[in-house]
Fold these 2 entries.
Entry 1:
Amino acid sequence: MGTPTIESEEHRALRKAVAALGTRYGRDYFTRVVAEGAHTDDLWAEAAKLGYIGVNLPEEHGGGGGGIVELSIVLEELGAAGCPLLMMVVSPAICGTVIARFGTEEQKRAWLPGLADGSRKMAFGITEPDAGSNSHRITTTARKEGGDWVLNGRKVFISGVDIADATLIVGRTEDARTGRLKPCLFIVPRDTPGFGRSPIAMELSAPEKQFELTLDEVRLPADALVGDEDAGLLQLFAGLNPERIMTAAFALGMGRYALGRAVDYAGTRQVWKEPIGAHQAVAHPLAQAHIELELARLMMQKAAHLYDAGDDLGAGEAANMAKYAAAEAAVHAVDQAVHTLGGNGLTQEYGLASMITAARVARIAPVSREMILNFVSHQSLGLPKSY
């Protein structure tokens, strides 16, 4: 599909280069990795070597010096080639951004070079069994004990913990002045005693596995706390906005890949005199899907530009809208692609059926579309809360 004219020449060049990388690997590579129960290590390593994985991280720590604008382009183009890297949403976008913005100099030196060159990965743990989309109900707690922090709690649906060197855990500490619990972020290395993980069986074809985490008296040094203890909420949302933008990029790439397969099929599949794409009943739904994807991309670009410009408030609204629009567009594009191929759309040969489930992930994670509608209704429109 085409690229928008509002992008700079540099961004268009980045898009073209990443698309070429993605094409060399493609959907066959992705499908093979999933079937083998392996990981997309080869693609990750080559993308990192070319500077794509850490394109958003500071140059002084080995990154590309760009922002979420550039990182979202990378993920979208890899997805459009059929081989998205989900850990890009988590490792450089969320964790790398939070550490770059709020981490101590020691934390930046310890983590950012590895996150930038792809040699290290970091997972992100916020979701809990009883909290759902309500981050205010997080029950993972951290208490001070001597010079250490001690964490207890549970997390669910945490991606890639098995391949991550550490997990950025969202916990809550007690404010000594008010007694209220406030969010804070902690770096928990993978092999820390008391930090357990168990895989969650998913009806989802993806290289990245999902895990339930348990934190049982996990003892961490004082420097495991990221940034300022009193700025935890600000730091948390500094990571959640990039997460939503990158989820939009993930969904857009998926939708573009599915639409591309459907367009190719409709342009060559012939059962009567003309290819089936000549019929408006086939062509118009594909055109509509294309329009929806392009509109969602514009909102994603707006969100990314606002975030990179330091407008966290504006980026919050746009990031939620972008994630909502991209998820809806991707689900529609995938559904229409499968429908266009008919029975072939359900075969392993064409590889679209598994995307029916995958596309719906963007509707659910990292926040449901209903919670986004709640956000827009009372934050953007000023309507009263229902909860």
Note: The CA atoms of residues 104 and 227 lie 6 Å apart.
Entry 2:
Amino acid sequence: MAVTGNGPLAGVRVVELAGIGPGPFAAMLLADLGADVVRVDRPGGGGLAIDPAYDVTNRNKRSVLIDLKSTGGPGRVLELVERADVLIEGFRPGVAERLGVGPADCHARNPKLVYGRMTGWGQEGPLAHSAGHDIAYIAVTGALGMIGNPGEPPAVPANLVGDYAGGSLYLVIGVLAALQHARTPGGAGQVVDAAIVDGTAHLTAMIHGMVAAGGWQDRRGANLLDGGCPFYGTYETSDGQYMAVGALEQQFYDEFVRLLGIAEKAPARKDMARWGELREAVAARFKTRTRAQWTEVFEGTDACVAPVLSLREAPEHPHLAARGTFTDFGGITQPAPAPRFSATPTAVTGGPARPGADTDAVAADWGVPGLTGKGA
């Protein structure tokens, strides 16, 4: 795959030490933004049982094969590091150092390098060396405990809140900030410690403020934004589908109850003692029509109501289709790069990188002929 140089990060070189989950997603985002991301894959593959041809988190990247446990492996990586702006790794604390590609090793070769570390627990703390996954990280931060219905187990939000929101996005923010610092006069490279527990906790900042102000109860399903409010939640339709309601402000609520046909219940909005009654009325009304019928009623209005779509349905939504929010590349429907830029537009220019497929091209482009030798 040729490097096209599209996007605002064109010219930025990134080395990604292969991992799973939030690290690859963060590197994909940098690649989507135009960076030349070279993924260092290990011989024999990684940890996820997915065909590399379908792993879209490796799109817009290139791949080389290097065995970090071989005699020459760390040296090949350090040769790439000399020519890179950023390195991303997701090992447990201390592993990169033992392999000979830790921050000290890399900064000795390239003082300007931004060294991004993606972990769940962080580089220090009692649990730093423990295994974990998204669900544990969001559990201890209080985020998981907020999600779901009262009296029921917390609802698991896939791995979006921890791995990708609290992890990948914070790693990218940190990397870009550190890259800006490294490029200022007198600036130097540094280590970015992106822990999912830190990022996920940071996402709850507004909620902590509301708790302190007495505007949020520290339990599920009892608040304005967690399903406790009858005009901010989901309701089943007659065909077993769902509609999402977010009519918080008075003017949106007025439009919602008018179009739903229960305007006589409107005064119950501010009376929390009557929220149960209001919820029953809303639920009963939604059960009288199908999701498609209610979508037709609310689409394009200020009632703040939308159909709950599946992953396969989402690309066909008229608004998302008009914006090109999803794209098809190589026969795979996938989200298009985001956000959008007026002067440096982004695009999916290459499918998932196949392990080792770009070794020769990277060796030539980056000036590292040793990549193609037996020492890799």
Note: The two ends are 20 Å apart (CA to CA).
